[in-house]
Amino acid sequence: MSKHTLLYTEMVTTGAIIYGKGDYLGYNKEEHPIAVQLGGSDPSDMAKCAELSQERGYDEVNINVGCPSDRVKNGSFGACLMAQPEVVANCVKAMQSAVDIPVTVKCRIGIDDMDEDEDFARFIDTVADAGCDTFIVHARKAWLQGLSPKENREIPPLNYPRVHRLKQARPELSISINGGIKTLAETQQQLESVDGVMVGREVYANPYIMSSVDKDIFGDANAQSLSRREIVLQMQQYIERQEDPYFKPWHAARHILGLYQGQAGGRIWRRYLSQNGTGKNPDPNLLLNALDAVESAQREVAEYNSQKD
Fold first, then answer.
1. CATH assignment of 228-302?
2. Pick the catalytic residue: 67, 80, 91, 107?
3. One Pfam family name from the record (predicted)?
4. What is the pLDDT of residues 267-283, one digit of tens each?
C-alpha cells in the first residue's frame, strides 16, 4: 500500500538477538524502508546489535525508550530509561560509532512524576548532545506503577502541544509525534507542527488508511491507490513467495484482519480468516477464499439494496 512509509519492527531485545536461537532480525526486502527497534541499555550490546542490524540491511536502528511493561522495566530498558538519559546517551554514542545508518530514539514525554517540561527537556538535551538528531515522541506519560501496558496506551492524557513546543525549541532536531492519531487528515494537521507522524494501533486496526498515504502525505503523483481486492491478491502472491518452511498463511493474514473495517462483509472477512487460518492444516488459499466470501456477501447486500430501491 505504501512505498514511502517507514516501517518499524516490534521491539526486539539485545539479549534475544545476541543469545537467542531464532532469527530476530529477519524481515522481507519488500518492507523497506524499515527500522529495527531495539530494547536494551548496555552500550556495548546495543552497538553490537546495531552493527548486526546494519549488516542485515536495515535503514535505521531505533532505541525503545517508551515501552512501559514490567518485564521491560525489570530488564532496565524501555520507558524506565526516561529517568536515565545519560544511559541512553551512552548507548547512542556507542551505536553511532558502530554504524553509518541513523540511530534514533522513541520515547514518552515522561514517566510517573517526571516533569513534562523540565525533565523531558533535560532528557532530550542530554540524548541530543550525544549525537541523536531524531526523536519519535509518544505524546503521553507512561505510568510504571498502577497501569498495565494497554492502559498506558490509552489512559494517560495526550499532550500534543508539549511535542510541538519541543520542535519549536529545538528546530534543528527531527521530531515525530505518536499517540492517538487515526486519520490522514489528522496526520496532515500534525505535520504543520512536527516533522513526522507515527501511527500504530489505528493502522493495525484499519490498515486501508495507508492506501493513499504515498499520494496524500508524501506527494507522490505517480502512486497508485490499490483497492482492497488488489491488496488481497498481492498479499496472496506474497504468501506464495515465502520459502520459510515454518511460514504459514496466518502469519501474514492476521495482520490484515482489519482490511475491511467499516465495509460490508468486514465481519465475514475477520471470521473466515480466524476460523480457517489457524490449526494444523491451514488453508493455503486462505486470502482468496476469504475474498470470495466477502464479495459474495457484498453482492447480496447490493442486490438487496437495489430491490429495496
1. 1.20.120.1460
2. 67
3. Dus
4. 999 999 999 998 877 78
Task: List pLDDT tens digits, range 47-88.
Answer: 999 999 999 999 999 999 998 876 665 667 889 999 999 999
Report domain 7-199's class: alpha beta
Q: From the CA atom positions of the chain, what is the Rg in Å?
A: 21
For residues 285 and 289, what is the distance between their CA atoms, to the nearest angstrom? Answer: 6
- The CB density around residue 133, as the number of other CB atoms within 10 Å, is 16
| Grid coordinates belonging to 222 | 505517480
What rounded mean pLDDT belongs to the chain? 93
CB neighbour burial string for 206-226, b if at least 16 within 10 angstroms, e if fewer: bbbbbbbbbbebeeeeebeeb
CA distance 61 to 65: 13
Going by the annotation, the residues of the binding site for FMN are: 37, 106, 138, 178-180, 200-201
- pLDDT band at residue 261, thresholds of 50, 70 and 90? very high
Owner of C-alpha cell 516501517: 7
Say how far apart CA 294 and CA 302 lie, in whole Å: 12
Annotated binding residues, written as ranges, equal 37, 106, 138, 178-180, 200-201
> Diameter of the chain by CA atoms?
69
Q: Measured at the alpha carbon of residue 83, what is the angle toward residues 78 and 86, in degrees to the nearest 5?
A: 95
Can 67 be counted among the known catalytic residues? yes
What are the sequence ranges of the domains in the chain? 7-199, 228-302
Contact 117, 162 (CB under 8 A): yes
